[in-house]
Structures
1.
Amino acid sequence: MARPGPADGHTQLPCRRPNFSTLCRHTEALRPHPAKFPGDGEHAAIPGYSHVRRISRRRFLQTLGLSSAGVVGLSGYGLAVEPVRRLEVTRYRVSPTHWPRGLALSIAVIADVHAGGPAMPVERIRGIVAQTNALNPDVIVLLGDFAANHRFKTRSVGADEWAQAMGELSAPLGVHAILGNHDWWDDLAAQRARRGPVVGRRALERQGVPVYENDVVRLSHNDRPFWLAGLGDQLAFFNGRRKTAWSSFAGVHDLDGTLAKITDDAPVILLAHEPDIFPHVPARVALTLSGHTHGGQIRLLGYSPLVPSRYGNRYAYGHIIEHGRHLIVSGGLGCSILPVRIGVPPEIVMVDVAA
């Protein structure tokens, strides 16, 4: 190929072998010289940065070491302290619209036990049961995910074992349960048959604890009636590979069918393991209680980086009010996927409902 000449629109320059010393001089001229700050010597300070002092290598290494130690310490706390040794009682006061006067109700909420080591051996479950009873609630509700099937489980606790511990719960208006996704996922026979009842349900019912799946019960406190409505799980079955994470599951929930079983105008409290149903809950429901999210298991400054909900942090944790409707999401007790909790310790939730 011919070199480009004047006919190509280029000016052809004579080719001359570069001199090595000349290249060195040009390279030195182009090389950026380190700027020095006031008091450092001959070079002038960079304009606008005269207030900045260079960090020494020793200071940099000290800072790096402290940062690394902080990360290691936080990780150790998240693994060995918060999920294993801490237990909070978190209280909420709720005054739903049209809640009847004279009906003051205290509800103990236990969610996401995930029975199994290292965080939730049966001995600890018994201690949580005793502490819940000591709070003297009017009614106790269990929001599902009793089973633990994550890969870091160090000790298994069978359904009959954790159900026997939960069977020691006691309240004047009884103990009432729903199931969570892990209770369905843990039962391979139910997954194959695409129907229940699952092992966890049968274990609870043997202990006298009723389990609600798209069903309701009418209770009365101080001669004032109210309804508990228990929704079937929204992520009960695996659907195989789908385009989105949420389409990979099928639920057994039927919100409309459940609420159709309510026969009067007494207030309704809905138990729904996953809070994602809340946008579809009508104003007829005074309060929705959910778990599932664990508050993200890592929650700092009110923000959870990872939340198992299509709504992200919207329903991650706590008391949420939308259009006059109330939702409380418990941070739960156990762990899922990883045995880690930071900023959202295991909790028993106490909800006081009154006009």
2.
Amino acid sequence: MTTIEEDVLKKLSIADLERANAYAKDLTRGLQIIRSFPQGVTIFGSARLPQDSPYCVSAYNLGKALAENGHAVITGGGPGIMEAASHGSYDYGGRTIGLNITLAHEQFPNPYLTDCITFEYFFARKVSLAMASKVFVFYPGGFGTMDELSELLCLMQEGKMPKMPMYLIGETYWKGFDKMIGKMISLGLIAAKDTNIFHITDDINHVVEAANKIGHPKVSENFYDGFREASSIEKDAVNDAMSAISAANEEAADVVAKEVPTEEVGNIEREALVEGAETVEEEAPVEEVESTEETIEDETPDGVVEEDPPEVVDDGIDEAIDDEAIGEGIGDDEASDDDEASDDDEISSEEAAEEEAVEEAEEEAVEKETEEDE
């Protein structure tokens, strides 16, 4: 695995933490605001359709009918289908909530909203649109509408949220979608019962009837409160994961708050190395090294003077070596050896001559004494 510099990891960690905090802030704010009104009917659809299109006319009539029956209308807060549904509810005096979002092309809230929230992130907006609703309605739309539709279908299919009424308005338009669903069933990609999650119709009265059947929950109540997934094992796993994420976020927040230097952030390997170094120092303290040096000095024979080693002077320059110079040096050494051998031979000859002279003198003395005795 490629090792990334610690300062880069630290920057990524802080950036991720800041991003996570921004996500949480956007989502928390949205959930807090939707708790201020009872769950209503969320209407999805294109922002590009003109107000005189048949789908926008239908959405206007639906918004008005819902207001007449006391149901709040929740939309994305923009133009097109969203504006038409809000307009119908607004004209009757109903409550219209727009969950708008900041976009590159600056989507402005439509003028028929009694309440408006602006989000930074799509996912926080989608969660809030779902949590605010007891019935879902989909008019024709583009990628954004299909994204919201497919996510809600998946969540209901997998039991991640309660199966709430869902209506796709416009039989002609949704015919292609229904055909694609049939293809999925034939290939075994989904179960036939999954088609019970949604209903395709042109009659907006089905939506009003479903909302009336559910009734008008209190502001303090939400159908998603207390909802539990079918699998308790999965729920426990999710809880454990959330606890781990929460602990990690708290730890990261402490790091950022204390402005800990890079080398102290999550550097487990360095801590291990430091601990190892401390262990080595404990095993071989300085005192023991000094005592060892004293022992060596005591073992030095008396009368022997230790000489400091000659200093090595390194001028940092590489010297060229001459093979001939080396040869001449060797020849000089051999010549000096011969001279020393000659000197030794001369000394030996002189000593031998002296010894012979001494012996001759002794012999002469002995002979002289003998002659005198005679």
